[in-house]
Amino acid sequence: MKYTTKNEMEKKETSDEGNVTKKAHCNTVEGLKENWQKWANDHCEYQKHNPFSSNRTMTVQFQKGEEGYGTPREGSRTQQRGQSAHAHIEKEVDELCMIIKSIGETGEDGKPRVAFGPLFERYVTISNKLVGVLLTARKHGRISFEGEMLWQRRDDDVIITVLE
């Protein structure tokens, strides 16, 4: 939604004589009324697509399995925030794999690996969300480890292997 600034409202118009100017839609009641009506019309159009509005008439409904189902509108701020979050998570997973490679040892299969205990001790100074990043990295097929969840002390000897 675009709001009109005072400078945009103060555009000058030339009268019939060519040398007299006046400000259009600046202080006249008619100009204020037109600007208000434009804003109201824009807002009504916006509310038609707002999923939280009770005035929703033009919302596109996707069925499960259709393209576009469960995804934000193209070019929306929601889509931008999602892309930013994915990039941030990818960066954290890359950092985790780099740390495992730097403090771990190479196994018989040539892949870097480290026990959870030493990784936890090293990573806790970097971030407090190691287990969440480990689960995300496993979900994306970047690492592997036994068990569903890793707990400090109990799973200190569980081996975490980088798969790439």
Overall description:
The chain has 164 residues and is of the alpha+beta class. The protein folds into two domains: 6-49; 77-162, Orthogonal Bundle (Arc Repressor Mutant, subunit A), CATH 1.10.10. It has helices spanning 6-9, 29-49, 77-103, 116-123, 130-139; strands spanning 12-14, 21-23, 105-106, 112-115, 143-144, 159-162. It has a four-stranded antiparallel β-sheet with strand order 3-4-6-5. It has a two-stranded antiparallel ribbon with strand order 1-2. α3 crosses α4 (116-123) and α3 crosses α5 (130-139). The longest helix is centred in the middle third of the chain and has 27 residues, at 77-103.
Supply the key terms.
164 residues, alpha+beta, Arc Repressor Mutant, subunit A, 2 domains, 4-stranded antiparallel beta sheet, two-stranded antiparallel ribbon
Describe the structure concisely for a colleague.
One of its GO terms (biological process) is positive regulation of transcription by RNA polymerase II. One of its GO terms (cellular component) is sarcomere. By secondary structure, this protein is an alpha+beta fold.
Number of domains: 2
Q: Give me the count of strands.
A: 6
Rounded average pLDDT: 81
Please state the oligomeric state of the protein chains shown: single chain
Helix content: 40-55%
Provide the CATH architecture of the largest domain: Orthogonal Bundle
Q: CATH H level of the largest domain: which superfamily?
A: Costar domain
Terminal residue distance: 46 Å
Strand order, largest beta sheet: 3-4-6-5
What series of H and E elements makes up the topology? HEEHHEEHHEE
Give the number of helices: 5
Structural class: alpha+beta
Region (Disordered): 1-21, 64-86
Protein name: Actin-binding Rho-activating protein-like
Pfam families: Costars (PF14705)
GO molecular function, one term: actin binding
